[in-house]
């Protein structure tokens, strides 16, 4: 593990790099979340696992705030951050080689001992430094994490460490194997988990343009490449909401098999499906009945025409 700091490479583009401006934006997003959810004040006691999106904050920041306001960091010593790889093909999983991750507020320290132990136990690879720097799925969570740590702990010296992991293209059996490896960490009250994922990426540029005239699974098909104008039937954005709702319903069952099967059926472009999958597999290992509850769903826009595109965002928590 090298003594080097991964720069906040997306600050100034995907989110504000001025700490004062950024702090004000995150605080406003958090303040707009209700003070209680599911009959509980926030943060929800024991909600040590969240799913949150990772797009630019102007798109997904308000949705992410719902997850982070639910997140209970009390007594936490380390935070596992699991994200997908957008910059290179990854089979299996990979760990950072950096010892710190920069944010506009200050650095977060990597738990190098835990990272090394997980790497050895799972035969994980190192994330190539250039890909670590260019990857956004982990970075986009760190300012929110820093803000919530500020609210929870007396000073940065008391902040939890972080364990950044990229989860690659694993099949069902491989996801369950990683879940077994992570289960003891998830079971510990000293650890929190942040699972990084956007939901449906719809549009030709994402190679996913499904449509159902009745917005049901039975009629789901891919629009022809040359299709123009709004199709007859219900709007395209209702189909997008349908496939996302089916994915979220599957996640809320707590069954890894149900979620894996849902993605296989709809081919929904949930970019963090593998981080979600290994976390669900770990939750099944820890205790029967552990499951996520979704608290927010948003989209970058409402698609009407085949030439349009959108990305969906969801926020969820699990009490462990």
From TrEMBL:
<protein>
    <submittedName>
        <fullName>Related to protein tag-253</fullName>
    </submittedName>
</protein>
<dbReference type="Pfam" id="PF01875">
    <property type="entry name" value="Memo"/>
</dbReference>
<comment type="similarity">
    <text>Belongs to the MEMO1 family.</text>
</comment>
<dbReference type="InterPro" id="IPR002737">
    <property type="entry name" value="MEMO1_fam"/>
</dbReference>
